[in-house]
Amino acid sequence: MDEKKQRFSGKPIAEQIVNFYKVNNIQKFTFSRPFTRKDPLMEIENEFAHLWLERTELTTTYPLPGILRWFPVQFTKVHEISPIRNAIETMERTNKTLTNHITVFNKDKSMQINPLSLTLTGILDAAVMGGIKNYEEVFFNNEYETHHPDDKILVEKLKDLIADQIPLLDLCVQIHKQKAPDNLQPLQKRLEECFCVMKTDVEEKYGKRDCDIKLENEVQMRRHYSITSDRLSDITITSDTALMVNMPIPLQSAY
């Protein structure tokens, strides 16, 4: 999946395509085991400061799925993911999930709203989430910068991911507003209030960002399909005309 991830990176790929490559032609598998290791240089008691991952990577001899009943493991690699890298991976997964919700909505306006509701609640409701606040408390302070000078680039990357999340959340809240039935209007109001507070706070600290992906309404989609259909018709007509022009005229008999 690593090669596919590089090919799909930064592109709004449909979830069906991504899911296909998740379970087809796979040779590399990973699983992570979280564990706690106290940082002797950090006095803070926040669990995010001491949450490491032990990641095991397995490479099989042949890609799966296949006709064999079992596949030997050819290579095994075990390495550790530091708390700051774990935070970055978590933010990347969250932003990818938000992007996927937007992509699904642009493809299918009849999408189910429940997964989006759960995602937005987990991110925006501080009583549920608190993730970004934890990251700021642990990594964005003088103590961490002093004791971990080599992580300066990683700290800036985490800040960028937090800032990049705001425009994605903005679009997802708009989608939720369009799709939310009457019984979810109180939740919608709560999400909008939380988002306004979060947006103001993040943009003041890390700057305002834009995203390439946009919402497509039904009028835009119909116009796009109409233009595409017209272009196909023009191509067909042009091809037929060219065929008629290039077709040799049969000689008529003199008799």
UniProtKB/TrEMBL annotation:
Q: Which residues cross the membrane?
A: none
Q: Which GO-annotated molecular functions does the record name?
A: guanyl-nucleotide exchange factor activity; small GTPase binding
Specify the domain of life of the species encoding this protein.
Eukaryota
The molecule here is called DOCKER domain-containing protein
Q: Where does it sit, as one GO cellular component term?
A: plasma membrane
Q: Name one Pfam family in it.
A: DHR-2_Lobe_B
Specify the species: Aromia moschata
Name the family the entry cites. Belongs to the DOCK family.
Q: Where is the DOCKER domain?
A: 1-211
Its BP terms in the Gene Ontology are: cell migration; myoblast fusion; small GTPase-mediated signal transduction
InterPro entries assigned: DOCK, DOCK_C_lobe_C, DOCKER_dom, DOCKER_Lobe_B, DOCKER_Lobe_C
Which region is the signal sequence?
Answer: none
